[in-house]
Amino acid sequence: MSSTVSIVACNNYYSKEVYGSMKDSVDRLGGMERFVKKGERILLKPNLLTAKEPDRAATTHPSVVEAAIRLVRETGAVPVVGDSPALGNGRKVAEKAGVLKVCESLGVEFVDFKETFAIENPSGRFKSLIVAKEVVKADGIINLPKIKTHAQMFLTLCVKNMFGCVVGRRKASWHLAAGRDRMAFARLLLEIYNLLKPRLNIADGITVMEGNGPGSGLPRHLGLIVASCDGVAMDRVITEILGAKAQILPTVRLAMDEGMNLNYIETVGKGIDEIKINDFKFPPQMDVEWSIPEFFKKRLKKSLTPRPVVNTKTCTLCGLCVETCPAGIMEVGKKKIYIDYDLCIRCFCCQEICREGAIVSMEGWIGRLLIR
Ligand code: SF4
Ligand code: SF4
To answer: Which ligand ends up closest to the CA of 348?
Structure first.
């Protein structure tokens, strides 16, 4: 059976416009009543991983959260909003992102994920996954990702956004467990997504982040709301709208390798070819086919693999990245942050957390030449 992805234009963040576009987009999938029922507790899961203002395009815009709250409420269901940042207090992140204000003005509970719950995952590679208790308490989840670039995973969309259901610093342990193996991390993300299975995904694609995401990229107008109950199919469609081959996304590649049929996706509203762009700036990548001897391959990989580089001009030495680093290989010096690149697992948690946008991902040797 083919999955359906709904793509609707939305040119700004005015509440009325976002609500109208989101309703149109969800109506094309059968309406919100198809996904939630009266009296159900529905968790809305935006991307609130780091404390940044809405116009930095790092978090799901408050108007998108507001429109989703209204649509859920109209069915008679009870919306709650929740997420867990990599570090610190979720309420503070939600406040900075403008989402707390929306919840307070609409009388909606905001939950900072703190308590955990272990879910059995017998058919997966990861047999038990510890996630936020609130996720399990809810009758259903609506996933509200922000379309952003991501240095490690290429893009952060529906599947990656559900990683926020892992509470706070536990995310770091998972990063550490996956190490530099991007496909191992993709497997974890896919298993979390499939286990928690949001009933619906609605992406904030109005102003997206391009370039050095997830923390230091630049906002770019895309003007879209995209929705689907199949997050993997939706990730494929979004990647293609941004002008890349979908297989470049590790989670999509893995899903296809595992036999998921993503060849027949129906789009409603706008078509991919109609809105596809060809100048979107992706993060530096080095995943190319290597037809050279193993010895050279390793050396080349090492010098080309994108790595986090701290800009000493904008770094305030606040130490947040050091606290976040899952590998514990960053150090605050008198004048700069030191990173042990031999032990760095390229997870880019440091970049995501940096409020100054002082960390960028650069290919190894370019980074060294330019910054050191
Ligand atoms: S790089 Fe960013 S998070 Fe790290 S110390 Fe500097 S300003 Fe703080
Ligand atoms: S330095 Fe940054 S990219 Fe490297 S392990 Fe630490 S947090 Fe991850």
So the answer is: 2
In angstroms, the CA 44 to CA 208 distance is: 19
Same domain, 145 and 214: yes
Judgement on whether residues 346 and 209 belong to the same structural domain of the protein? no
Q: Which residue's CA is minimally distant from atom 7 of ligand 1?
A: 315
Helix (H) or strand (E) holding 191: helix 182-196
Domain that holds residue 316: 294-371
Which ligand is closest to the CA of 178, given by its number?
2
Q: What is the pTM of this model?
A: 0.87
Q: Is 347 in the pocket of ligand 2 (CB under 6 A)?
A: yes
Centroid of ligand 2 to alpha carbon of 126 (angstroms):
23
Quick check: 83 and 169 in contact, CB under 8 A?
Answer: no
In a domain, 154, yes or no: yes
CATH number of the CATH domain containing 301: 3.30.70.20
Based on the domain organization, do 225 and 81 belong to the same domain? yes
Residue with tokens 């987009």: 25
The answer for residues whose C-beta is within 8 angstroms of residue 134's C-beta and 6 or more apart is 43, 80, 82, 111, 113, 115
CATH at 109: 3.40.50.11440
Residues 308 and 243 in one domain: no
pLDDT (tens digit per residue) in 85-127: 877 789 999 999 999 999 999 999 999 999 999 999 988 888 8
Separation of 86 CA from ligand 1 center, angstroms?
15
317: left (phi over 0), alpha (psi -120 to 50) or beta: left
Tell whether 113 and 38 lie within a shared domain: yes
Residue 236 maps to a domain: yes
Whole-number average pLDDT of the chain: 90
Judge whether 257 and 226 are in contact, CB under 8 Å: no
Residue of 49, 339, 352, 362 to test ligand 2 pocket, by largest number of atoms within 8 Å of CB: 339
Whether residue 283 lies inside any domain: the answer is no
Ligand 2 atom at minimum distance from 321 CA: 7
Please indicate whether residue 222, judged by its CB atom, sits closer than 6 Å to ligand 2: no
Say if 318 falls within a structural domain. Answer: yes
